[in-house]
Amino acid sequence: MPLNHSSLTLPAPKVAPLLTFLTSSLAHLGFKEHARFGPSIVGLGEETAYFWLAGILSEDVDAKTVDEVLRKQHFAFTAENAEQVRVFYDEAMKAGGVDNGKPGLRPHYAAGYYAAFVRDPVCGVNFEVLCHTAGEEEGTGS
């Protein structure tokens, strides 16, 4: 059974800058905004919204705890090939992301597993883009 949708809950003031980071670094994969409910609930995806940003009021939560929880989050998006993985990494770095794993083969995960990892500059969430089709001709990335 495939996953239908998921959401990342974060302080409402962080929704807009995280939205900018995600749409900048994943635009080449067709990732864009599809729905918005008020200023702090945004649905993103390629053809339809499946990844939601859900903003909560900061005074409702302990900010330090939220930051710690956000840094433990991980979301992975599928690319068709290694070039798309490399473009994600380059665009994410241009958008202020923090390197958490340069593009390359990760045979300890699975044969042909090619991925890049970037922490967003807003919440520190670990975003990954990966493909399972990386072959010898695509090298190990940079």
Key terms for this structure?
4-stranded mixed β-sheet, disordered C terminus, 24% helix, 33% strand, alpha/beta, 2,3-Dihydroxybiphenyl 1,2-Dioxygenase, domain 1, 8 strands, 142 residues, globular, single chain
Concise structural overview:
By secondary structure, the chain is α/β, with parallel strands linked by helices.
Biggest sheet descriptor:
4 strands, mixed
- The CATH architecture designation is Roll
Total individual domains: 1
Question: What's the number of extended β-strand segments?
Answer: 8
**Structural class label:** alpha/beta
Shape: globular
Q: What's the overall average pLDDT, rounded?
A: 91
Classify the fold: give the CATH topology: 2,3-Dihydroxybiphenyl 1,2-Dioxygenase, domain 1
Number of discrete helical segments: 3
CATH class: Alpha Beta
Q: Nearest-angstrom radius of gyration?
A: 15 Å
Percentage of residues in strands: 25-35%
Relevant CATH superfamily: 2,3-Dihydroxybiphenyl 1,2-Dioxygenase, domain 1
Structural account:
It is a single chain. The protein has one domain (6-138): 2,3-Dihydroxybiphenyl 1,2-Dioxygenase, domain 1 (Roll). With 142 residues, the protein is of the alpha/beta class. The chain has helices at 15-26, 63-71, 82-94; strands spanning 6-11, 32-36, 41-45, 51-56, 74-78, 98-105, 114-119, 126-131. The N and C termini lie far apart (35 Å). Helix 1 packs antiparallel against helix 3. The chain contains three helices and eight strands. Residues 136-142 have low confidence and may be disordered. The strands form two sheets. The chain has a four-stranded mixed β-sheet.
